[in-house]
Amino acid sequence: MIAAVPSSGAWRTISVEVQALHTDASRFQRREAVDEERLLALEEAGRQHCGASFCPHRYEPLELWQDPEGRLWVLAGHHRHQLALRAQVRFVDARVMSGAEVDAVAYAARSNARTKPYAPLEEAGIFRDLSNRGWSWERIGAELDGRRPEYYRKRAGLSYLCDALKACVRDGTLRAEYGEVIG
Asked: What 3-state class would DSSP assign to 91?
């Protein structure tokens, strides 16, 4: 499991137009699917407490990264963002970080692990991506959850499996540890 570690990046808080936000699951949300049940539960909680499906004062601000072109990308709060879109909310509060894209990718990985641990294949994709962006296995460990560098190297091996073997890892017929050896 990737632990949530505070980021050292610079943050500022703003009110942002929901429609102006960008998402990129391949970089900032490694879950294999949106949790529809969680969205429905958030909508119901909003209706019970505010009379509307989106209740802004009940949620933490979204966490965003501003790229060099000025675009704002959702790092943390993908479900809250989807909920605001569904409810046709115009503006939400957000915290915006500046810095390198690789730092934003790592922050998103840490932050999203707070609510639900990553599945082995989700972790593998994160570790491979950070390695491909120039991070050493040692740095990945230092920035994420402090495990030995060998753990990250082996786990990233799962991302090299063919689709059929990835499906076996997902359904449990192939243990992740065995898939790491094959990958």
From this structure: strand
* pLDDT tens digits for range 89-135: 899 999 999 889 999 999 998 888 877 788 899 899 999 999 999 99
The pLDDT, as a whole number, for residue 169 is 95
Give the C-alpha distances (Å, rounded to integers) separating 56 from 7, 21, 42, 90: 24, 17, 11, 11
Helix orientation angle between 120-132 and 163-171, rounded to the nearest 10 degrees: 130
Query: Helices (H) and strands (E) in the chain — how many of each?
Result: 9, 4
Distance CA 55, CA 46 (A): 5
Position of tokens 């009110």? 15
Q: Which amino acid is at 61?
A: P
DSSP letter for each residue of 97-128: E-S-HHHHHHHHHHHHHTTSPPPHHHHHHHHH
**Residue 62: helix, strand or coil by DSSP?**
strand
Which stretches of 35-172 are assigned E, i.e. beta strand? Answer: 62-66, 72-76, 91-97
